[in-house]
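Appendix B. One record, verbatim.
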Amino acid sequence: MVEEIALGTIEILGTRIELLKVLISIAIVAAGVVVARLVRIPVSYFLTKYAPQAAPLASKAVFWIIVGVAVLSAIGNLGVELTGVLLAGGIAGIIIGFAVQSTVANLFSGLFMQIDRAFRIGDAIEVAEMNVAGVVTDITAFSVVLRRFDGVYVRIPNEKIFTSQVRNFGRNIARRVEVTVGIAYKEDMNKAIEVIRKIVDEDPRILALPEPRIMVWELGSSSVNINVWCWVPTQEFFNVRGELVKKIKEALDANGIEIPFQQVTVWFGDRGKGKVKEEEMDDKGGGLRLPSLNERG
């Protein structure tokens, strides 16, 4: 053994290897570990800042990838034939890749979502393609957990969310309340707008800017529809909308402004006598009495 070392060679697992190559390989592995640690620090810092949930797993992956490359380089430096190893590793990698395809997709989708920052924990969101809405309670490397508005928890894979349209209800500091009010055609539209505007102006939670807008929007089948648009703080959205509808209904009733039911005019035949008249209403229940065949003749 001493003579072999003196000659600059050493036998490992039955293979004679030059001592210099062994020392160089050890240095390569040591350098790889040092480089991996140095690279891991800025990667971990960057990911902690932009993708905190994925930072630990991603930084470890970067570390071991660099160490693995260093080990392979060291083995190659010793003169060990790596063609078979790499071929077997490549085949194994393909098999494993197919097996964990969805897992890897969720991992990278989670990383991109953290960088994109479309939402964060505590935001109320809706995943349009999945028709799911709720409050984000947790964001992991592989999935997002939502607490739906009915209290049920839903776990959604990151890939599904990343490739879907996501509506964030809580991202902006203010949201627009939209209410449609229908009044009868016989009513004064200007008076109705006046009554509604008074209610809007009296509510301190409704923002002055953007300015609330109240306008006649549509001539419906049974009513003249007035749209009310006003902006409120996001956290007050549901409270303001519910109270606004209630107050508008009470104010219109107090001012004698009718909110009509849907009405339908029925015609029979083509003689000009087919329109149902008020006297053809049933005396007992007030319901519509249709003319018999003899009466129509």
